[in-house]
Design goal:
Length: 539
């Protein structure tokens, strides 16, 4: 298509600067982390279509606009040629109309391109919005097994990078492959109609250019993947060194770590220099090939003009056509590899969307309303992985109001017991009962809202102290928040802070001690306080 002078390397830069997460390990999200696959997978396209289908009307509008746009851009180089023919014929009215038509055509070009890009971006963004919400809702509903088995980095990469990659196909990618193809056909038709012998001569450059671009794409793809891997490594190293600063300093590993960083940093530089070289290579090459085609056409065409076989104006049109001849070829090779990346991205996204909800509310689950607080473990068997049992027939009976502490060596299964009580996982044998109800027969929402859980490894959300205390009960009144804080003995401490309950917590709760962090979030109205770990808090 007509637009854009540059070589459109945007997609590739995107790869280079994209992911900052280190992949690898033995997560269970199995789809390969390679970036390129089939470009057109009907199964994937069919499923993506479901997200775009509600916007059918706009998609059709986009296609019609694309057709108009392509036609206008293909006709464009012809008009100056026709105008020159009018000059050679000394026809002033003809000249005026040609110039007028040129203006009209370019206005159509402008408006149709603007609307087409806007409409397709609109569709792409709306479809993407649905993909991202579906993914977020689904991931939020998954049991902790999913989070145990898949590294945070990998899940994040799928939810961020893959969605971004997908955006390219969902908005303009697919339709512009089609548009480029039409442009190429259109330009060829005009060239052949104007002067078929000259067109035949010029078309020799098409296979040459296609092969050159194809080979270049493959080289560039490898170069940019390497650059991306190396920047991920740099980022991972920086991230580890920043978050592990305390450990590094206490073990005086600074020098060795600097040395390691030097190595990955150097590798990253080399990879990017190479990628830069590959990028720099193609644009002048295209320019040279198109200059050769132009020179040949002007020379041979010039002879034809002299012998009267071709009108001068058409030779000018020819030159203009050759000038934009390689744009569609380049766009198609570029979009084709975008499609390949997007297909893989979509497969990875679908893998998350298809992840089974192994712990879910039963269809006839009831609300737990009693809230007496009687707990029973009946011959509970459980293992995180098949074949590795952690609990082997556990029986516990806790009466309402009773205070119970689990004491045992590390790895004994204390946290596991609490996780089963909150139904973060399902037992593999036996049953967990709360107030006489099997936890699998009641809704998770009603079960967990009856509990106050202080995790061994606390997580503080950004916001205020108040927001964190009321995290499990967003509609809690100030009095309730204060009661909860008093119950665990942190009220006075909070009041001594700068802004009391409105003090903002730093990322990861860095301005709180570990004990304070454990006490801060959660608290429901009815606190069954379960310290599921080695208590570090003073209470
Ligand atoms: N998410 C998990 N995936 C696989 N195995 C796990 C997981 N969590 C715990 N385990 C294993 O289950 C066993 C019990 O772990 P658990 O966390 O319940 O111990 P704990 O008694 O709370 O120990 P600590 O006192 O160190 O907190 C351990 O052998 C541990 O390796
Ligand atoms: Mg524990």
């Amino acid at each position: 298509m007509g637009g854009g002078g540059g070589m459109g390397m945007g997609g590739f830069r995107g790869i280079a600067l994209g992911s900052g997460t280190r992949m690898g390990g033995s997560g269970n999200l199995t789809t390969s982390e390679a970036d390129f696959g089939k470009a057109f997978d009907p199964r994937v396209l069919g499923r993506l279509w479901r997200y775009a289908a509600p916007f059918k009307l706009r998609i059709w509008a986009g296609i019609v606009l694309l057709l108009i746009n392509t036609l206008a851009s293909v006709v464009n180089p012809l008009i100056p040629g026709l105008a020159i023919n009018e000059i050679t014929k000394h026809n002033q009215t003809g000249l005026f109309w040609m110039c007028f038509f040129f203006l009209v055509n370019n206005t159509i070009l402008w408006l149709s391109q603007f609307q087409q890009v806007y409409q397709m971006t609109w569709v792409g963004q709306h479809a993407l919005y649905r993909v991202a919400s579906d993914m977020f809702h689904h991931v939020a509903s998954l049991s902790l097994t999913f989070f145990d088995e898949n590294e945070t980095g990998r899940v994040m990469a799928r939810m961020q990078n893959d969605v971004t990659v997908l955006q390219q196909v969902l908005s303009n990618g697919m339709i512009s492959i089609f548009g480029s193809f039409l442009s190429l056909i259109g330009i060829m038709v005009f060239l052949f109609v104007l002067q078929w012998e000259l067109a035949l001569l010029v078309s020799i450059s098409i296979p040459v250019m296609t092969i050159a671009l194809w080979v270049w794409q493959r080289t560039a793809r490898r170069a940019f993947l390497r650059a991306r891997d190396s920047i991920s490594e740099v980022n991972a190293t920086i991230q580890e060194n920043v978050s592990g600063a305390r450990v590094i300093q206490s073990l005086t590993r600074e020098r060795q770590n600097s040395h390691n960083f030097e190595r990955v940093n150097d590798k990253n530089m080399q990879a990017n220099v190479h990628a830069g070289k590959v990028t720099a290579f193609i644009q002048p090459l295209v320019a040279v090939v198109s200059a050769i085609a132009l020179a040949v056409a002007v020379f041979v065409g010039g002879l034809m003009v002299r012998s009267g076989a071709l009108e001068l104006g058409f030779l000018v049109s020819y030159a203009l056509y050759i000038n934009r001849f390689f744009d569609p070829i380049r766009d198609m090779t570029q979009q084709y590899s975008n499609m390949q990346r997007a297909t893989v991205a979509a497969e990875r996204i679908f893998e998350i969307l298809d992840w089974p909800q192994d712990v879910a509310d039963a269809p006839d689950a009831q609300e737990l309303t009693s809230g007496r607080g009687e707990i029973e473990f009946r011959d509970v068997h459980f293992g995180y992985k098949e074949g590795v049992e952690v609990l082997h027939g556990l029986d516990i009976h806790v009466k309402p109001g009773e205070h119970v502490a689990f004491v045992g060596p590390t790895g004994a299964g204390k946290t596991t017991v609490i996780s089963l009580l909150a139904r973060f996982y399902d037992v593999t044998g036996g049953a967990v009962l709360v107030d006489g109800h099997d936890v699998r027969d009641i809704t998770m929402q009603s079960l967990r809202s009856q509990m106050g859980i202080v995790l061994q490894d606390p997580f503080i959300f950004s916001g205020t102290i108040r927001g964190n205390i009321a995290f499990g009960k967003p509609d809690a009144t100030d009095a309730e928040v204060e009661t909860a804080a008093r119950a665990v003995g942190v009220h006075d401490l909070i009041m001594r802070m700068e802004k009391g309950y409105d003090t903002r917590v730093l990322p990861n709760g860095a301005n709180l001690s570990l004990g304070q962090r454990q006490l801060t979030p959660r608290s429901s109205s009815r606190t069954v306080c379960l310290l599921c770990g080695t208590p570090t808090a003073s209470s």
